[in-house]
Amino acid sequence: MEFSIKSGTPETQRTATVVVGVFEPRNLTSAAAAIDKAAKGHLSKVLKSGDIDGKVGTSLLLHGVPGVAAERVLLVGLGKESDFGDKAFRNAIAKAIASVNEIGGSDATIMLTELAVSKRNAMWRVRQAVMVAADTVYRFDQLKSKKESPRSALKNVAFVVAAGEVTGAKSALAEGHAIAAGQHLMKDLANLSANYCTPSYLADQAKVLAREHKLGVDILDRSDMKKLGMNTLLAVAQGSAEPPKLVVLKYNGGTKGAKPIVLVGKGVTFDTGGISLKPAPEMDEMKYDMSGAASVFGTIKAAAMMKLPLNIVGITPITENMPGGKAIKPGDVVTSMSGQTVEILNTDAEGRLILCDALTYAERFNPDCVVDIATLTGACVVALGSVACGVMGNDDALTNELLASGQESGDRAWQLPLWDDYQEQLKSNFADMANIGGRMAGTITAACFLARYTKKYQWAHLDVAGTAWRGGDKKGSTGRPVPLLTHFLMQRASKAKAPAKATRKK
Ligand code: BES
Ligand code: MN
Ligand code: ZN
Questions:
Q1: Which numbered atom of ligand 1 lies nearest the CA of 436?
Q2: I need a surface site. Which of 104, 224, 324, 381 has the fewest CB within 10 A?
Q3: Cα 494 to middle of ligand 1, angstroms
């Protein structure tokens, strides 16, 4: 699907379908009013007949509207004008795209992006529109013997903005496209079943990504990990027949020597729980336990496409968590790369075991800050559901940046307290710490565990167990938190750029 930016009046758009909005109860947007005027009251008549009432999620397709250049006019319900915010805007775009795609239209001109959304500018509207549109038409059919052909009927989508907004909208279009591409990559990797998506497969995909975007890539294998003393990562991997990999991706868009932002992503390609075996229902979904790693790949792809003036390092420890004959057993004590010892009381708390070594490894990059991303705890799904991911960290400014990026991108996060009081729950009689902290505050104690390995830099942790995946009949990867992370990087990039510009002017 190709996107473009246009401006102009709706009745003159030469397109198969022009999409205009209707507020509840039957209030025409200015684009709809313009069409109504050109069509000598045709829309008002249709609205009076009661076929559409402007409610969110409704739409109505009209053929051969007189006085209009487009072949069809699609009316989309926007809800009450006073409630028209982020969510209603996104829903309207999704409905528009889905409806046009359903009727098999190959091109459409969407007037909804010129509507005012409270506190949002045209760049935000266009970025969001592109992301929502790409998400709406996304299908995963790699493993179907008969592909849907064509994947999406819709080929060209133009978003309309006011004439003065065209320049900004065009750069927002490119940004939205990059974020959508990063999300697409993440979704493809997380949706791919674990018999295909092994640690070796992900390492190969990292190489492909590196080639495409001229990134540096290092793949550490078991022997490298042994040399480095990554024993907690190796401990998780030892129950599996698939060899573990630690992928390091480097994007150098910033000034030489500028400290990198390091992203660390959990890459468990399948989490059976190990000897602390998970129950059978929904265990299939544990193929998405590599979503942290996939989000790092996707975010770096988006950053590279946008050519952000930053240095970024992605570190992704990747393994299966299996109950093999060599698997770790509850009670085993292992020495992590940091030298701290861990009593593994539950082999299903494996994410923190692979992350702690990756977080220690991150030190060697002299990071500006480190953000880790992990489908870490079921407790986070209980606490926040699928609406927000959990965020915790050791630096309030960094945490606040991530919270703001979540709000801005529509990929929201919510902070949980990472107070020292919770550290007590990790006490062990036999090692420096246990890998679990009991039934209470499971998301926080998981982060407390990671906090013991991140004392040397500014760090934040995103628990995306509830947001990276959708259950039910729309089962599949959401591509989150690629939008949040990319917005965070874009913010950092605009800060990195600003002083350089100022000095040049002098
Ligand atoms: N990958 C899971 C967390 C998870 C659960 C993600 C549900 C998505 C949906 C993680 O490895 C895990 O098993 N965590 C345990 C920790 C517990 C043993 C302390 C959990 O949440 O049950
Ligand atoms: Mn687990
Ligand atoms: Zn897991």
A1: 19
A2: 104
A3: 36
For 276-280, what is the mean pLDDT? Answer: 98
Given CA atoms 62, 66, 71, 77 in this order, what sign does their dihedral have? negative
| Residue 506 annotated as catalytic | no
Q: Is the shortest distance between the CB of 381 and ligand 1 below 6 Å?
A: yes
Mean pLDDT of the chain: 96
Closest ligand 1 atom number to CA of residue 268: 1
The one-letter amino acid code at 288 reads Y
Domains in the chain, number: 2
The per-residue DSSP string of 85-133 comes to: SHHHHHHHHHHHHHHHHHTT-SEEEEGGGGS-BTTB-HHHHHHHHHHHH
**pLDDT tens for each residue of 187-246:** 999 999 999 999 999 999 999 999 999 999 999 999 999 999 999 999 999 999 999 999
Binding site membership of 442 for ligand 1 (Cβ less than 6 Å) = yes
Domain that holds residue 52: 2-141+155-161
Confidence (pLDDT) at 496: 82
Give yes or no for a contact between 260 and 367, defined as CB atoms under 8 angstroms apart: yes
Residue 420 domain-assigned (yes or no) = yes
- Strands (E) across 210-361 are located at 216-220, 245-252, 261-265, 267-271, 311-321, 332-335, 341-344
Assess whether 222 and 90 both reside in one domain: no
| Neighbouring residues of 504: CB distance < 8 A, sequence distance ≥ 6 | none
Residue 504 banded pLDDT, cuts 50, 70, 90: very low
Nearest CA to ligand 1 atom 14: 377
Model confidence, pTM: 0.97
Is 352 a residue of the active site? yes
* Whether 302 contacts 182, CB under 8 Å: yes
CA distance 22 to 40: 17
Kindly report the CA angle at 464 between 461 and 466, in degrees rounded to 5? 145
Of 4-13, 102-111, 140-149, where does mean pLDDT reach its minimum? 140-149
Establish whether residue 463 lines the binding site of ligand 1, counting it when its CB lies within 6 angstroms of any ligand atom. Answer: no
What's the CA-to-centroid distance between 271 and ligand 2, angstroms? 5
Distance 439 CA to ligand 3 centre (A): 17
The answer, yes or no, to whether any atom of ligand 1 lies below 6 A from the CB of 246, is: no
- Give the ligand with the smallest distance to the CA of 446: 1
> What CATH number is attached to the domain comprising 185?
3.40.630.10
Say how many Å lie between the CA of residue 377 and the centre of ligand 3: 7
User: Identity (one letter) of the amino acid at 376?
Assistant: L
